[in-house]
Amino acid sequence: MIRTESDGSCWYASAKRHPSDNCRVRPPGATPSLLVIHNISLPAGCWDTGHVIDLFCNRIDPDAHASFADLGGLRVSSHLLIDRRGRLCQFVPFDRAAWHAGVSCFDGRENCNEFSIGIELTGADATPFTQKQYFRLAAVTRALVKRYPDITPERIVGHSDIARPAGRKTDPGPAFDWPRYRALLAGRPGADTSAGPGR
Q1: What are the E-state strand segments in 41-180?
Q2: Which residues fall within 8 angstroms of residue 192, CB to CB, at 6 or more apart?
Q3: Residues 18, 87 contacting (CB under 8 angstroms)
Q4: Distances (CA, A) of 92 to 10, 20, 68, 118, 153
Q5: Nearest to 78 by CA among 30, 122, 48, 120
């Protein structure tokens, strides 16, 4: 499912591509070994507006909404975006570092952008994610782990787990059902997650 192009760039085969300039070459010897899950919506709590794609591709109009005033000069991206219907977009090839983690640290190693892959889910901290998003996220994760085996279960985290200082970020938020996601990864789609979101 992950295809290497003639130029060496690595893309998810079925993802719609929206190439972003907000990325850089990974440092020598750095390969993806961490998967970071985020959520995003623009404006907050609004889905399928197209503004997230505009943000990651540097086309956001700061005048389009009152909450966008500070976004005009922001340069951020993620490798992938999964919308509420499970549709997949890719902005940055996996061989390059996307700008999704910000000031961050995992297992004593700073600047997680250099060695991570970022996946954004359209949503908000307190809003349950959709079944299609969980199924797509699990499928994508399995493909990534197959391609990049250093991404072990312990190295699949939320943005809130790596952001510094602690508490700077809260996503993917309490509504993200980690047991359900991990059950899907393990091939147990019917696993009981009635205990609710948690790790």
Answers
A1: 80-82, 88-90, 96-98, 105-106, 109-110, 116-122, 156-158
A2: none
A3: no
A4: 9, 6, 23, 10, 23
A5: 120
CATH of domain 29-185: 3.40.80.10
Helix (H) or strand (E) holding 185: helix 178-185
Nearest to 76 by CA among 29, 40, 123: 40
Provide the token pair at 118. Answer: 């970022």
Q: Is 120 a catalytic residue?
A: yes
Radius of gyration of the chain (CA): 16
Answering whether pTM is above 0.70, one says: yes
Catalytic residue among 5, 110, 114, 120: 120
Give 35-87 pLDDT, tens digit per residue. 999 999 999 999 999 999 999 999 999 999 999 999 999 999 999 999 999 99
